[in-house]
Each structure stands twice: as C-alpha cells, then as structure tokens.
Write a structure and sequence with these properties.
By secondary structure, the protein is of the alpha/beta class. It is built from six helices and ten strands; from the N terminus they run E-E-E-H-E-H-E-H-E-E-E-H-E-H-E-H. About 30% of the residues lie in helices and about 30% in strands. Helix 1 packs across helix 2 (about 70-90).
C-alpha cells in the first residue's frame, strides 16, 4: 500500500491531502485571495498527518502541483516537497495543475474541458482535455479572443473552468460554451494522478526539478515620482 502526501499551492488554494493507493484519507485546504501558503502549508501537513494517525516516516512519496500558476505559490510548494523528499529519501512526483483541474469535471463522451488560470490582462494559462480527461492540446499562455477554442466548440460542448473562466465568459458567446468559475486546483484531485505516477515509477529528479512557470517571473516595481 502506497501512502502519498499531495501538495497544491499553484493558486490561491493552499491544499494538502494524504491518500492511500489513490484514495483520499485526509484533505486540508483553505482558499484565500491573500495567498496564505507560507503560513499554512506546513501547518496543514502536520494536521493532516495527525488526523491520519501517521508520521512523515510513513510516507512513500511526495507529490506537488507543478504549475502553471503563481510564481511564489509554486516556489513554496516545490520547496516544501523537495525538503521532505531529501530528508525522508522518498521520491518526488509532479502533477500538472491544469490536469488535476480537468479531473474535477464529469464529462460527456463528446465534450471537452478547458481549465484556465487567470494571468495578466486578457491572458490565461490553458490546456484542453477530452471526455476521458486525456490531454488533446498542450498547455499554453494565450490571449483570449472571440475566436479562442473555435476548433473545439464548433464540434460540441466545451466546459471552461477555473479562475480565468470569468474573462472568457465575457468574450466567448458560442452556445456550446459552459463556464464554471468555482473550480480551483486542489490536492483532492491530485491523489489519483499522483498514485498513477507512483505505480509507474514516474519520478522527478529532486535536485533539479523546477516548477512549470510557463512564463518568466516579472517583478512589478513602483514608478518613481
């Protein structure tokens, strides 16, 4: 039996789960616009272990959401995951943030789901998944326009989910579009995906692994008076 710790910090939701063979036994999370990950992540890890009556020595691997998402949030999650892997000598698993979002949606056979995370201005991070949650278009940073995702919406239902869905809803008017703004990345959906990778021994190099930022970090500086 494999016991995995899953960490999700790519967006505003600070989320931690412990799962055995892909089944959640404990979930701790808090979605705050203030990005409380630095204060809450390690507290949630300790609380989750206590609720599961486990110690860190019982963990077989650490899984972390790899992005795209918040630069700072991703750094916090990956740093915590790496630290645990080094200290416990257990494997590191990465889970694509948009893939775990797609897995929150129950799909009809011919429909697709497009998880979108809000980026700057009219830009989103997005990927496209089919009715069985297989990726059919890679992750991109793209500007939302009137013709975005036409190749999919002209064939059937397209469900757009995530923090970027609001800006999409203002522009994309085809009747085949549906929008769900409530979906956020969560360690709950990571459990099945991380266990699949664990079973396939699909591990990351702990020393060299970096989050999938997709875009370079831009430091916002105050203008001089």
């Amino acid at each position: 039996m494999a016991t995995l710790l899953n960490l999700e910090t790519a967006t505003t939701n600070c989320s931690v789960s412990i799962a055995k063979d892909g089944e959640i036994i404990v979930l701790k999370e808090h979605n705050s616009p203030n990005y409380s990950h630095a204060e809450q992540l390690h507290v949630f890890i300790e609380e989750a272990l206590q609720e599961a009556s486990l110690s860190v020595l019982d963990l077989d691997a650490i899984a972390v959401s790899k992005g795209p998402g918040s630069y700072t949030g991703l750094r916090i999650g990956v740093s915590a995951a790496k630290g645990l892997c080094f200290s416990l000598s257990v494997p590191l698993i990465s889970v694509a943030t948009l893939e775990s979002m797609a897995n929150q949606v129950v799909l009809e056979k011919d429909s697709v789901v497009i998880p979108v995370l809000d980026a700057r201005r009219m830009e989103v991070y997005s990927a496209v998944f089919n009715g069985v949650h297989s990726e059919i278009r890679e992750t991109k940073a793209e500007i939302v326009g009137a013709n975005s995702f036409n190749e999919f919406v002209n064939k059937g239902k397209v469900i757009i989910v995530g923090s970027g869905a609001e800006k999409c809803k203002e522009i994309l008017t085809h009747p085949n579009f549906e929008f769900n703004l409530e979906v956020v990345p969560s360690a709950k959906e990571m459990a099945k995906l991380s266990y699949e990778k664990f079973s396939n021994k699909d591990f990351e190099d702990v020393a060299y692994f970096e989050p999938y930022y997709l875009k370079d970090f831009v430091l916002q500086q105050k203008k001089k008076a």
